[in-house]
Design goal:
239 residues, alpha/beta, Rossmann fold, 2 domains, 6-stranded parallel sheet
Length: 239
C-alpha cells in the first residue's frame, strides 16, 4: 500500500510524521517553489509532475493506492489536477482543507472574492501590508497611489514597495511591532486559515487596522478532511 501526499503545509508535515510513526509507506511531494525546505526523513518528490497526465502517469507507474492533497488552500490548479489525475488512475483522493479564519467580533474586515477586487477596495493613500504570497503580488503593482509592505517566504519576481522575506510562524507581539513600525492602515490577506500566520489578524484587531480578506477559490467536489484525525481515519479505512 503506497500513498502520495501533495504537501508543503504544516498539516501535511504532521500527517507525514503520523504515517511514518505507523510504518505506512508514502512519498511526500513538494512543488519546489520554497527555497531551502526543511530536511525530511522520508521519501520526497520535489518539482512538478507535468499536469494531469503526468501526475496520473506517476500514480500508475509508482503503484500509488491513495492520493492526499494537503497543499495550500489557494493552490487551486494543483488541487484540480490532483482530482482529475486520481480519477484517471482510478485511486481514491482525499483533500485536506484546514478551516478558514472566522471574522472576530468587532473586527474591521472587508471580504474580496479575488485579488483584483481586493486591489480595487484599497483607498488612495493607504499604507498596506500585503500577505498574499510572492506569486500573487503583481495584482497590486498598478496601485501607485498606495504604499505597500509585503511579506513572503521567497522574494517576489517583480518587487515593489518594501519587501520582507520571512517564514512563519509569526507571533502577535512581532506583528504589532511590524505594523506599528510601518504605520500600516490596511492588511490584505488570503483566507488561508491555520495557526502559523493568524497572529497578523490579532495584531490588526488590536491596532484597529482594516483587514481585506480574499476568499478561497471554488474547488471541485471531493472527499474532504478538515482535521488530522479525520484524515488518518480516512487512510486507515483503506489500508
Amino acid at each position: 500500500m503506497s500513498i502520495l501526499i501533495l504537501g508543503g503545509t504544516a498539516e501535511a508535515d504532521i500527517l507525514a510524521d503520523l504515517l511514518r510513526g505507523h510504518g505506512i509507506e508514502f512519498t511526500y511531494s513538494l512543488a519546489g517553489v520554497t527555497p531551502n525546505p526543511k530536511a525530511r526523513v522520508y521519501p520526497l518528490h520535489i518539482g512538478g509532475f507535468g499536469g494531469v497526465i503526468g501526475l496520473a502517469r506517476y500514480l500508475t507507474q509508482n503503484t500509488v493506492n491513495m492520493l492526499v492533497d494537503a497543499t495550500h488552500p489557494f493552490a487551486s490548479e494543483m488541487t484540480k489536477n490532483a482530482l482529475a489525475a486520481s480519477i484517471q488512475a482510478n485511486i481514491p483522493m482525499l483533500r485536506f482543507e484546514r478551516p478558514e479564519w472566522d471574522e472576530p467580533e468587532n473586527a474591521n474586515w472587508a471580504h474580496a472574492e479575488s485579488l483584483d477586487q481586493a486591489a480595487k477596495i484599497l483607498p488612495a493613500g493607504a499604507r498596506v501590508f500585503l500577505s498574499v504570497g510572492a506569486q500573487s503580488m503583481a495584482e497590486f503593482a498598478h496601485r501607485s497611489d498606495v504604499d505597500f509592505v509585503s511579506r513572503s517566504i521567497k522574494p517576489p519576481s517583480s518587487p515593489f514597495g518594501k519587501t520582507i522575506v520571512a517564514k512563519p510562524p509569526f507571533d502577535v507581539a512581532g506583528e504589532v511591532h511590524l505594523f506599528s513600525k510601518y504605520r500600516i492602515t490596511h492588511l490584505v490577506s488570503k483566507n488561508a486559515g491555520g495557526d502559523q500566520t493568524s497572529a497578523k489578524l490579532v495584531a490588526a484587531k488590536q491596532l484597529g487596522i482594516k483587514v481585506i480578506m480574499v476568499e478561497r477559490p471554488t474547488l471541485p467536489v471531493a472527499e474532504i478532511a478538515r482535521d488530522i484525525t479525520t484524515a488518518m481515519a480516512w487512510i486507515e479505512r483503506r489500508l
